[in-house]
Design goal:
phosphorelay sensor kinase activity; Helix Hairpins; five-stranded mixed beta sheet; phosphoprotein; Beta-Lactamase; 13 helices; 4 domains; five-stranded antiparallel beta sheet; nucleotide-binding; about 500 residues; transmembrane helix; single chain; alpha+beta; HisK_dim/P_sf
Length: about 500
């Protein structure tokens, strides 16, 4: 009897333990579904559970049939129970045999997984490193762009990016200021619109097409207000995004050119001064003798006679020669400058008082436009009166026999005293403008001018630290502009 009890309860415990094992393995597998050991144990527990159930059921049924006197039924079922047990043994054995192969596969899978994980980590590191490199490079590019953008914006020379058809893609503020353009002008204008002469534009384009660059090409540009100015053009062909762009750097050399002209003028004046002093001394004495003897002969001749008239012609021409020689001496040996406190408006008014009456009789009106905020200046006022007289007389002669207008304007502008003398006369041809300050250059008829007035005025103005310029258009008139830095002409008391 105890054996039967042990068999019965042992069978039941086998079933219970088998299913508890299944439950435990399922829990472990749920925590790590990829672990092949748990998978193996789970199937092994399934096999053991099947075997436990089959064996336990067989033993229990056997005892029930034998005890109840139905042993023949057990004899009929016993082969089936044995077959089931055999199958369970085969299943468990198969699982165990195949586990080694599955384990090797699992090891390969895990090895590949580790390799993939390592590759993934390396990829993440490289990606992070690449992001850092990209971020750093982006910062460097942004810094470089800001630096060159700053240079582009603060440059005092024009910088422009242009297409081959002349369309301006970008131009810096200095370029807009140089041309007198606004932001809207860039949208409708082309680079060729900057050139004063179309031939210069064609030459620049020709050099770019032949050599892919042009260096320091000297030409003239034109502002929106029509003012012409000299520039140096440097350009190159660059490839951007598979597209050819033209990069230009344009430098305004107007001031340099003006300075060169002034240096040439000063050199001319210095050379001529030395020559004039020697020539004047050599000629002045003979002229004095000729004039003296001519006047003696005039006293001895009867007025109205042919000889008397001839002597008067000689006297007139000798006096003209002495005037020219006198101007030469003044030019070569100017009197010392004696500067003092002076009101330029008083000086101009005094000069106008001398000429105004005669000008009005000739049909020439004078218009005054004074800026009385100009302070008293430290000048040699007598020399400045000579300058004003020369300019007014030149303006009067330019008007000729026609009616006209002479305007004298003064104003303060950017720390400078500006004096303008303009007329509505015949104007000066463009080819003569560069020579108007040359000594002895004149377009007046013989006997009406020596050609030294503007040269002397130029020297006086330079001596006072100023500049003189001329703008003229044939048939419309001429404007002489005198510019004096106010610091040059201010007296000490005013500065204090």
């Amino acid at each position: 009897m105890p054996v039967y009890v042990v068999d019965l309860y042992g069978s039941l415990l086998m079933i219970i333990f088998a299913f508890l094992s299944i439950r435990q393995v399922k829990r472990l597998r749920s925590e790590n579904p990829q672990n092949v050991v748990w998978i193996y144990l789970l199937w092994l527990c399934y096999g053991l559970a099947g075997f436990a159930v089959s064996r336990s059921v067989g033993h229990i049924v056997k005892r029930v049939f034998i005890t109840s006197g139905h042993e023949y039924l057990w004899l009929m079922l016993r082969p089936y129970s044995g077959a089931v047990n055999t199958i369970m043994f085969v299943v468990v054995a198969s699982i165990t045999l195949f586990f080694e192969r599955i384990w090797k596969i699992y090891e390969h899978i895990m090895e590949d997984r580790r390799a993939l994980k390592q590759a993934h980590e390396q990829l993440l590191y490289m990606n992070k490193h690449l992001e850092d490199l990209v971020t750093e490079r982006t910062k460097e590019l942004a810094l470089s762009e800001r630096k060159y953008r700053r240079l582009f914006e603060i440059s005092r020379d024009m910088i422009a990016i242009v297409e081959w058809n002349g369309r301006i893609l970008s131009i810096n503020p200095a370029g807009l200021c140089m041309l007198g353009w606004g932001d809207e002008d860039v949208k409708v204008k082309f680079f060729q619109d900057c050139f004063f002469n179309e031939e210069d534009f064609r030459e620049v384009w020709k050099r770019l097409k032949m050599d892919s660059e042009v260096k320091n090409y000297e030409c003239s540009f034109i502002r929106s207000d029509g003012l012409k100015f000299e520039v140096l053009v440097t350009g190159s062909v660059e490839v951007e995004s598979e597209r050819q762009m033209l990069h230009f750097w344009v430098k305004d050399i107007s001031q340099r050119k003006n300075m060169e002209r002034k240096l040439i003028q000063a050199d001319k004046l210095a050379s001529l001064g030395q020559l004039a002093a020697g020539v004047a001394h050599e000629i002045n004495n003979p002229l004095g003798i000729i004039l003296g003897y001519t006047q003696l002969l005039l006293r001895q001749c009867e007025e109205g006679s042919e000889v008397y008239d001839d002597l008067k012609v000689i006297e007139r021409h000798v006096r003209n020669c002495k005037t020219i020689v006198g101007d030469l001496l003044k030019f070569a040996r100017s009197a010392p400058t004696q500067k003092g406190e002076a009101d330029i408006h008083e000086a101009i008014t005094e000069v106008l008082a001398v000429v105004k009456h005669q000008f009005m009789l000739d049909g020439v009106a004078i218009k005054e436009k004074f800026d009385h905020s100009i302070p008293r200046l430290h000048w040699d006022i007598n020399k400045m009166k000579q300058v004003f007289m020369n300019l007014l007389m030149n303006a009067r002669q330019a008007i000729g026999k026609n009616r006209g207008l002479i305007e004298v304007e003064t104003r303060l502008e950017n720390g400078n005293v500006i004096i303008k003398v303009s007329d509505t006369g015949c104007g000066i041809p463009p080819e003569n403008l560069p020579r108007v300050f040359d000594p002895f250059f004149t377009t007046k008829p013989t006997g009406q001018g020596t050609g030294l007035g503007l040269s002397v005025s130029y020297g006086i103005i330079t001596e006072h630290g100023g500049t003189i310029s001329v703008d003229s258009e044939p048939g419309k008139g001429t404007v002489f502009t005198l510019t004096f830095p106010i610091k040059e002409g201010m007296n000490e008391s005013y500065e204090q």
